[in-house]
Amino acid sequence: MAGKNIIRVGLLSRLARDFKLLFSLIRDYWKGNYRDVSLFSIIIFAITTAYILSPFDFLSDFVPGLGQIDDALLLLLCLYFLEKDLYKYRDWKNKK
């Protein structure tokens, strides 16, 4: 049982690092400091953001707990697709 908890903690810390890196990437992209992001990643991020902010969902947000599942899954999928660009950005940032 302890192994599953370690995996969960590792996954959560990785997600937290990826989100922090994503927000830093967005900030540097917005300021024009970093532009080496693929068009595919930009489109995936834009679609994900639009869906999450949209009042129309596959699962209604009015259903407590259940309504946020599709948003969370889409956000995780988005991070999966952005991972290559995120890690390329992380390497660039570490070299600065």
Structure description:
This protein is mainly α and 96 residues long. The chain has one domain (2-95). It contains 3 helices and no strands. It has helices spanning 2-31, 39-53, 69-95. Helix 1 crosses helix 3 (69-95). The protein is globular, with a radius of gyration of 15 Å. It starts with a helix and ends with a helix.
Keywords:
96 residues, 75% helix, 0% strand, mainly alpha
Give the topology.
Blueprint lengths: L1 H30 L7 H15 L15 H27 L1
Helix pairs in contact: 1-3, 2-3
Low-confidence stretches: none
Radius of gyration: 15 Å
Strand residue content: under 5%
The structural class is mainly alpha
| SSE pattern | HHH
Number of strands: 0
Task: Put the structure in a nutshell.
This protein has 3 helices and no strands.
